[in-house]
Amino acid sequence: MHSTSSKSRTPRAAKTAAFLLSGALALALTGCSSSDGKGDEGTGGNASESGSSLKLPKLNGQTLEVAAVWTGAEQENFTKVLDEFKKRTGAKVDFVPTGNNTSTFLGTKIQGGQPPDVAFLPQVGVLHQFAQKGWLKPLGAEAKAQLDKNFSKGWRDLGAVDGTQYGIYAKAANKSLVWYNTAAFEAAGITDPPKTWKDFMSTAQTLSDAGTPAVSIGGADGWTLTDWFENVYLSQAGPEKYDQLAQHKIKWTDPSVKQALTTLAELWGKDELIAGGRKGALGTEFPKSVVQTFSGDTPAGMVFEGDFVAANINADTKAKMGTDAKVFPFPAVGADSPVVSGGDVAVALKGGAGAQALLTFLGSTDAAEIWAAQGGVISPNKEMDQSKYKDQVTRDIAKALIAAGDNFRFDMSDQAPAAFGGTQGVGEWKDLQDFLKDPSDVAGAQQKLEADAAKAYKSG
Description:
The protein is an alpha/beta fold and 460 residues long. Helix content is 48%, strand content 12%.
């Protein structure tokens, strides 16, 4: 198992975070219609007051390799951060995309004696696996100083294994968001975003009746389906059960899992509410799920996913954030709206000054502000200048995450061994794709999920 101290949080803490998120997004919904990001751009490479004293070594002539899952707009945005690092240190930095199977890609490189200097791991489970294999280098003093100064205890704990600090969560995600096409809502006569699952289903039906594909689902990427499940499960079963399932202390055959899958089947079982139906959803990758919500002749009304949806809206559509595209918290299935977070942790796979210098920079307010200014990303860096975010919607989402402090639940699949929660075509990703294909077979889905989880957790 791959537990972290971040999961000893109380149900009251989760309620507090949900309240904070709902309040911040309410402000975004009512107050940002004129904010499309123009005039809100960050200053890029300019150092903030707190970061002006950041000391980085001169690395002239040294070449570093950085690996992460990002492609397209996300990669381009991160490149701006690397450009500033290169400018300050004189190093050359090459970016290598890992593909969806990050752990497999990196494991092969490490075992072949050619690991990248720094890698971003999208799963906590992978961080623990790599640390236990001795593949990670602990943070140096300068990097740890930036971490301690700029990040709350919850995020620091997530980057540690058995008391040793290995990583910095330089990029976070709020995965409890539904983005909607304001024109589609207006055409269907919908004035208020739904707050409960019942209201959400009613809104979807209203959109469908008005001739709009209600919900766009990127089912070709199994990870999006795990996010659907986690939000429903956290809200419905509660934080304690969520922690138990995340650590496989209860089985996937538990009645709470049956209840969550049955709830999901209320949506997934209705072809008319899904853009392209179930078959279309299973052939739609995440970026396309966003594009078909905000462009085309018959755009969908809603798409569920994290704050990073903004990067695709900005890069791949003509929709304006806060005007054409707005956002609301994932609807409450139980008593409260869920607050599920994800993140990418930067770790050193090689020793030496170069890797540690980059980690130090990634932990600074300077790097956070440059990255935030590009749009489509949020940072858990609590000391950064929040005004650097590109648009008001993202700014409010980020503020809600910071205000929640340590009161969040981390993505469940990212806590699991990669063989179950983080690998394309197998484990939870594949099992939930099969369930989307046939939402009537709840018991069969539970049996497959439990069999795959038991095997993965046993082998670690």
